[in-house]
Each structure stands twice: as C-alpha cells, then as structure tokens.
Specification:
Blueprint lengths: L21 H12 L29 E12 L6 E12 L3 E5 L6 H8 L7 E6 L2 E2 L5 H11 E5 L10 H5 L1 H5 L4 H14 L15 H13 L5 E5 L7 H18 L2 E6 L2 H5 L3 E6 L2 E2 L1 H9 L1
Parallel strand pairs: 3-8, 3-9, 6-7, 7-8
Antiparallel strand pairs: 1-2, 1-4, 4-5, 9-10
Helix pairs in contact: 6-7, 7-8
C-alpha cells in the first residue's frame, strides 16, 4: 500500500491477510495488547538524545525465535487456503529481520505464528529454546505481554480514550499499579516526544503521531522483541522515514530485536537480514540473490 497520507483514521476497515478471517485478525490484536535518513522539514529523531547505545550492551548469539517447518491452513475442502507450507527460520537476539512478500504470500501469517498470536497446524516454534507448545495459556499471555511489543499498520487505538490511556493498556493487563503504569506511560511518551499530547484524544492526532503512540505502547513493558506489520504503510514518505528511524534506534540503542513484515523494499533493505516469502514458502530465488549480492 502506498504511503499516501499521514492523516488517517484509527482502525476503520483494516486490511486483511488473505489467510486470516476478520475475527482472527481482531482476536490477534486483542491478544497482542494482553543508516540515518532525512525526516523532512521540522522533524527530528526522538531517540538521538538517548545517553546510551547498542555498543554498551553485551554481545550475544542466542536465538530468541526458532521455527521448524511451520504450516498453517484456513478453511476446508475447496475453500482451504494453505497460508504457510513449511517455513523454517531463526532470529538471533538483537537482529533486525524483514519478512518480505506480496499481499497473500503468507508473511503476516508467519508473523502471527512467531508472535504467538496464532498456532501452527504443523511444525515447531521455540522461544529461547522453549517449545511454544509446552506453554500454558497463562504462560503464553504473560510472555506476549511482557516480552513482545506490537506495531501494526492500522493503529488499533481506542478513539475516545486519551493518548496516555491507550499507552497504559498493556500495563493494566499485566496488573501494574495505577501510579507506576502512568509513570511508565508518560516516560515512553516523552521518549517519543509526545508527552505534551498525553491528555489528547487519539482522534486528535495525525497519522504519524498515532503511529508514535503505538510505538510508545509497544515499549511500555520494556519488550525484548518488537513485531511490526507494515508499520509505515499508511504514512507519507517523510513521516514513514521518521517512524522507521525510531524503530531502528530502538534496536541500535536498546538492543531490541525487530521482526518487520513489509513489501516495502527500501524498508526491508534497512534490516540486517531479509526473508522472502512467496506462496507460503521461503523464496529460494530471492534467497540466492541475497547471498550472491
């Protein structure tokens, strides 16, 4: 989807992955909440003032995600759609990984499986060496809420609620006390240079500001991984570049692992590694071209 506007509505008519029903997409969202570039006139990088960098963090080679032969289908009989047909991958701690493919390729389905928003029909998923199938529902919810942050193309903000109330939602789910969750929400908004918007309604914000609120919400629980599904798809080029730089600053300065689903080649090229998905499988042609280049 082209970046054609930076003032878009909150979550009306979100685009659907071909393999996911509307109910599955909405359920996934509910569960999810349980190289320098120019910014355009007047815009700055909110993370340029952080006092530490990734160089200060310990270097590790621990895989945070390991997937073996993931399969996922929807429907039955003639209406059956095989969204994934056996995808395997490993994501190391601190990596930036782009999952790239056209609409309907299975890339969003793959992200939903990696983020524990859905379960595979076949195959295994390991999180820091622990088989996801062995996790209880409570353990899964706690892991998703504590270790994962989510940034979607559609913002999924509560329109009538204030900015700060939208940001504190994961903390409420985690059972954090009201005073502490407000402190942490305001701190996250300040990092994104949105502290002055804390009392505003979400509907009062531009598209770029809404996406920065979404990033603040993703950060508020200090996640180790951020999953971003077309994070700049609804933004104009300058605003999209600003959002990209915020995400990559989080990786560089705080060591947060980024898994980004996109069909935007420029965004994908900013990631340290690209995984190309086509018709539910990793595309070997694109993979060979990556190695050769």
């Amino acid at each position: 989807m082209p970046r054609d506007s930076c003032t878009v509505p909150g979550a009306e008519n979100p685009p659907r992955d071909r393999g996911l029903s509307a109910g599955a997409q909405n359920a996934a969202v509910r569960m999810a909440l349980h190289a320098p570039r120019s910014y355009g006139a007047g815009a700055t990088n909110p993370f340029s003032r952080l006092p530490y960098s990734r160089d200060d963090l310990p270097v590790t080679t621990n895989p945070v995600l390991t997937a073996h032969a993931l399969h996922k289908s929807y429907g039955a009989g003639e209406s059956r759609f095989d969204a994934l047909k056996g995808v395997s991958l490993t994501v190391e701690e601190g990596e930036t990984v782009a999952i790239v493919g056209k609409s309907g390729s299975g890339k969003s389905t793959l992200m939903h499986l990696l983020a524990l928003l859905d379960t595979p029909d076949e195959g295994e998923l390991f999180l820091r060496g622990k088989n996801a199938r062995t996790l209880s529902r409570r353990e899964t919810n706690r892991l998703r809420n504590r270790d994962f942050g989510f940034v979607f193309q559609q913002f999924f903000l509560t329109p009538g609620a204030s900015v700060v109330d939208n940001v504190i939602l994961p903390l409420k789910i985690a059972g954090v006390g009201s005073r502490e969750r407000r402190r942490r929400a305001l701190e996250a908004l300040d990092q994104l240079e949105l502290a002055d918007k804390a009392k505003n309604k979400a509907t009062d914000l531009s598209g770029g500001q809404k996406q920065r609120v979404v990033i603040a919400r993703a950060l508020v629980n200090n996640p180790t991984i951020i999953f971003a599904d077309e994070p700049t798809g609804n933004l104009d080029t300058a605003t999209g570049t600003l959002v990209e730089d915020i995400l990559f600053s989080l990786n560089e300065r705080q060591g947060i692992t980024l898994v980004i689903v996109t069909h935007d080649t420029e965004l994908a090229e900013r990631c340290g590694r690209r995984i190309f998905i086509k018709d539910g499988l990793e595309d070997p042609t694109q993979a060979r071209q990556e190695v050769e280049s």
